[in-house]
Amino acid sequence: MPGVALADLAQLLILSASVFAWSLPAVMSPGPVLIATVADSSKRGFLTGPLITLGHGLAEVPLILLLALGLGLVMSLKTVQAVVGLLGGGFLLIISLDFLRFARRASLNMKADERGARLLRYGPVAAGALTSVSSPFFLIWWIGTGSPLTLEALQLAGWLGILVFIPSHLVADLLWYSGVAFAVGRGRRLMSDRVFRIILAGCGLFLVYKSLEYLAAGYAAAVGLP
Description:
81% of the residues lie in helices and 0% in strands. The longest helix is centred in the C-terminal third of the chain and has 31 residues, at 193-223. The protein is mainly α. The chain is globular. It has nine helices and no strands.
């Protein structure tokens, strides 16, 4: 029926918007991926953004498929929810506070000798993949946020939901890293250090909120254990 089809389409659009919104703070997190993007953009310009995103996607898509194939079902266990909520929330709180400290001194002229930038000797695609898996925030986000979102996509529309989930998440990566690459490549006329710091600080505050939410959920799960 057309009404059902339109309702399903609306649900998929809502899912896509939700995945995009939840992905942005993770994408903007300071770390080796961002450093590699800034360092490579000074010589390659805008092209660095799509290439870094491609490498990042090569690391993430297999993980999404693993979650969809059953790894994410483990998250339904109360014990796992308690451990992930308390430990993941605690680690995320530490990372969030470090995020805010980083935001105060962040610059689009980050040093090229940082860990993320050193991996650029393998090329931006390889650097995008390697810097992704080497970031502590990567695993924490996928355990705490990515896994529930993947399950939501599956419950909503099966594998069609996953086909919506993947590009919705990767578009957030593409827009942020390409925007940073473009700003650096064009001499930072698009984004000043001040704007860069404000954006990062906003994401840091959001992550502090999410870490407290994870801790509260973990505590609730732990209290509910038999």
